[in-house]
Amino acid sequence: MITRYFVFIIFKENYPMKICFLFILFGIIGRGAFPQATIYKDFKNHFDMHDVKGCFILHDQSDKKYIMYNPDLCDSGYIPVSTFKIPHAVIALEEKLISDKDQVIKWNGHQWPHDAWNQDQTLETAMKFSCIWVFFKFAEELGIEKYYHHVNEFDYGNKDLTGPPTRFWLSGSFRISAKEQIEFLEKLYNYDLPVSKSSIDIVKDIIVLEHTDKYKLSGKTGSGVLKDNEYIRWLVGYLEKAGEVYFYAMNFKTNDYDKTKNARYEITKSIFTELNLLE
């Protein structure tokens, strides 16, 4: 609409053609307040290897460039499941539910299906093992209104926490897209959230997945039920290499929960390899 409006005005007023061209150019740029280059790439083969359909988005912050596969899916909202543990940990630290990554959180003896959960935890181990009861405990202690406050402050997803108040990130109306995951991660990484630097630093430290002499990969997985025999799997985070940072988010749907356990890492790292980001 902006471009058409400028074209109408400039030809009606009989401006010189060079000036007309500049008006049209600025009209095109004006359609987005922060223009970003988007490159659409075909990463289908990486998903096909695991017999899943999904999306991938990467944002090169220095070049202000997006690389995207399946853009419609990148804009589709899904339950955040355990990817919410990143903002959740920030919230727990800000609200003084826990003071640092090493404070012991006592296990109450309830038997969970994963052995790593059946012991005392710290914030670091709870993130590493995606220990669900630790975050249930935080939600019980804090109350849903506090989460509404922080989720709105973070502008995280659709901000609709309707559902079980101590499990709203696992079931209910809460939704976030891959693109929105990127937006949140950028704010986290750049200290652009209304929280203390120390809370962000602790969370950055506990979400590191790999650290080699060439790169540091940080992120969090997530898995959840969409409907009978259909699951969503996430991996979101950022890659630091040679002074640059690349934010990424991927998800896919699957009917085979067990078979796709490692597919998130394998798909993401194979795409990074194709993009020459791990060399």
CATH superfamily of the largest domain: DD-peptidase/beta-lactamase superfamily
* N-to-C series of helices and strands: HHEHEEHHHHHHHEEEEH
CATH architecture grouping of the largest domain? 3-Layer(aba) Sandwich
Strand portion: 15-25%
When the domains are counted, the total is 2
Question: Which regions are unreliable across 5 or more consecutive residues at pLDDT < 50?
Answer: 1-35
- The CATH topology assignment of the largest domain is Beta-lactamase
Going across the biggest sheet, name each strand in turn: 1-3-2-7-6-5-4
| Shape type | globular
What value does the Rg take, in angstroms?
A: 21 Å
Q: Give the overall pLDDT as a whole number.
A: 89
Cα-to-Cα separation, first versus last residue: 44 Å
